[in-house]
Each structure stands twice: as structure tokens, then as C-alpha cells.
Specification:
Length: 163
């Protein structure tokens, strides 16, 4: 049995980036507003805009890391996806579409010097999209493992038969 360190590295890169991006979105959407309560409007605005600027760097870097690690992971798993198309293709589609929607919302939220009107509502929607995207990805991993298990089970049954 062999574990390819490059496969592990790109998997970890993808998962750690997801944790950081979701954590930042959670912080900006739910925690920061609570922490800024009680400040005068000028301090509130300044702290929010500084936090938003830092988030912009994290999100833009995160999108790049997602693209690199996601493409690598897809290329390594595409043969497994072909073995159970109804399940794996639908989950992969939800995963990729969810990521694209989340990125679009994040980029729109971060465009310009100040956020657009109604950005808080969109960031809450974005958190939901991110959760659905992660749920699809984790279910897709389980589907890949089921394909591998099924293939090894059928191989062991056919190799155990008499010629």
C-alpha cells in the first residue's frame, strides 16, 4: 500500500483553505457585527472596513488555492467518478456550482472600498451556500470510497473463483 504525499498535500490544502474561508465568512457575518456593537459609528466603520480589507486578501488567495488544489484533486479522482456517474457527477456538480456561487458572492461583497447595500443578507446566504458545498464534497468523498470498496470487493470475489 502506498500513499502519495502530493495527493495528501493537495487534499489538505483544499480542506484547510475551506476551513479558513468559511471561518472568515462566519467571523465577518456573525461575530464581527456583535463585537462592533457599542462603538461610535466612525470607529465601527473603520474597524469593519479594516477587517473587510484583510478578508479580501484571504478570500482572493483562497480562491487561487481552491482552483489549484481542486483541479489537482479532480484530475486524480476523475476515473473513480466515471464508475458511479449518477451519484458522483451530481455531487461533484453541486460542489463546483456551490463554490462558484460562493466565490461570486464573496467577490461582490469585497468589490469596491465599501460594501454594497444589503451585504449582510448576502453573506448569510453565502454561509449557507458554503455549508451545502462542503456537505456535497464530504458526501462525494464517501461516494469515492464506496466505489473503491465496491471495486476491491468485486475483485476479491472474482479472484477467489476457480478457473
Amino acid at each position: 500500500m502506498h500513499i502519495d504525499p502530493l495527493v495528501v498535500f493537495f487534499r489538505w490544502l483544499h480542506v484547510i483553505t475551506a476551513c479558513i474561508v468559511i471561518g472568515c465568512a462566519f467571523f465577518m457575518t456573525l461575530l464581527l457585527p456583535a463585537g462592533l456593537r457599542g462603538l461610535d459609528s466612525e470607529q465601527h466603520e473603520a474597524a469593519f472596513l479594516r477587517s473587510r480589507r484583510a478578508l479580501k486578501m484571504v478570500i482572493h488567495s483562497g480562491i487561487l488555492l481552491f482552483l489549484i488544489s481542486g483541479i489537482y484533486n479532480y484530475l486524480g479522482n476523475r476515473e473513480l467518478y466515471k464508475q458511479w456517474p449518477p451519484m458522483t457527477h451530481s455531487l461533484f456538480g453541486v460542489h463546483v456550482l456551490g463554490a462558484l456561487i460562493a466565490w461570486a458572492i464573496m467577490i461582490a461583497f469585497l468589490a469596491g472600498r465599501e460594501p454594497f447595500r444589503g451585504h449582510r443578507g448576502w453573506m448569510k446566504i453565502n454561509l449557507l451556500v458554503l455549508v451545502i458545498t462542503v456537505a456535497a464534497a464530504s458526501t462525494l468523498k464517501s461516494a469515492r470510497e464506496a466505489v473503491i470498496k465496491s471495486a476491491s470487493h468485486s475483485t476479491s470475489q472474482t479472484s477467489g473463483r476457480a478457473p
